[in-house]
Write a structure and sequence with these properties.
2 domains; 18% strand; 10 strands; five-stranded parallel sheet; alpha/beta; Rossmann fold; single chain; globular; Heat Shock Protein 90; five-stranded antiparallel sheet
Length: 322
């Protein structure tokens, strides 16, 4: 796998204008001065801080200098996306409550752009509830740190995010890859890694990869919820194999399986909403569309006889493989 090296440009550690990042310029409008550490050495890594409060951004920048990180600051999401594409920082520190688009959308757009999909992302936020944390991992965050946080917490999250990027650059999808998971957070993290690998090693388009990811997400969540009944000691095994003409994904839970001919609580193509009354009576959450969703996103979907293993197949077109 070939990787590109990107020149590191450094920016001032504070920005009074929340709508723009303010670089330190030398001789011309396109020249940038590298920040230096206490001993006059060039900083060893660059962080993009996406934060609309200058005081908060300046504090984070000063903390980063303790580990010789240079910083650039964006006061809104669109500016952050532009700087990430232009400068490929070593890590993005992303606030969620921004004046234009929220941090979840920023992260999602970074992950769906092949140019930035491997940029490490750490979310720094005051939103500390489980729902927001799950959503952060769902859109591709590598770490989620809630305010107030300690210096060690911040650097541990940055190290985790950067280690993820290095592992992704080393990995490839050849033969078989197995993923075992027992929680929804593990599922979200592993599926984001799966997304990165598929983009790098198959001819599928971005839209096709995102559809496939959604299909796998639906089936894996079904395996956790319906197959394993949220029992943490039971694993879901996901195996994906790359062939010359197709990608094959097998998802298996440790449950007893189900009878596909007797699913009164699941959506059916003929009447996709008839199951909602059954779910309400059983006290189940609204849903049941997973099978229908997946059938529209993959070329083949088959179950084993027991009903606890599903195989998804996405084929490559002739133009993609030529």
């Amino acid at each position: 796998m070939t990787t590109q090296s990107h020149s590191k440009t450094a920016f001032v550690a504070a920005c009074s204008d929340r709508s723009q990042a303010r670089p330190v310029r030398d001789d011309g409008p396109n020249e940038f001065r590298a920040e230096t550490g206490p001993a006059g050495n060039t900083m060893k890594a660059t962080a993009l801080i996406v934060e609309d409060h200058p005081e908060q951004a300046g504090l984070v920048s000063r903390i980063l200098r303790l580990r010789e990180f240079s910083s650039m600051i964006a006061g809104d999401g669109e500016t952050g996306l532009r700087l990430a594409q232009e400068h490929m920082p070593d890590v993005v520190l992303l606030d969620l409550m921004l004046p234009d688009i929220n941090g979840f959308d920023v992260c999602r757009r970074l992950r769906t752009d092949q140019a930035t999909m491997l940029v490490p992302v750490v979310m720094l936020t005051a939103l500390d509830d489980h729902h927001h944390q799950m959503h952060g991992f769902r859109v591709g965050a590598n770490a989620y740190v809630t305010k107030p946080y300690g210096v060690d917490d911040l650097f541990e999250a940055i190290e985790t995010a950067r280690a993820w990027r290095e592992s992704m650059l080393r990995r490839s999808l050849h033969g078989e890859v197995h993923v075992e998971l027992n929680s929804e957070i593990t599922l979200l993290k592993d599926l984001n890694d799966f997304l990165m690998n598929v983009c790098q090693t198959t001819p599928l388009s971005n839209d096709q990869v995102m559809q496939l990811r959604q299909a796998v997400m639906e089936m894996a969540q079904n395996a956790i919820e319906w197959g394993n009944h949220h029992q943490s000691d039971r694993l879901v095994n996901i195996t994906y194999r790359v062939h010359e003409d197709r990608l094959e994904i097998v998802i298996r839970d440790q449950g007893s399986g189900f009878d596909r001919g007797d699913l009164p609580h699941a959506a059916v193509a003929e009447d996709p909403f008839s199951h909602l009354d059954v779910r309400d009576k059983l006290g189940l959450r609204a849903g049941g569309f997973g099978l229908l969703i997946c059938q529209g996103m993959v070329d083949e979907m088959t179950y084993n006889e027991a009903g606890n293993e599903v195989t998804l197949v996405k084929r490559f077109s002739v133009s993609q493989t030529s």
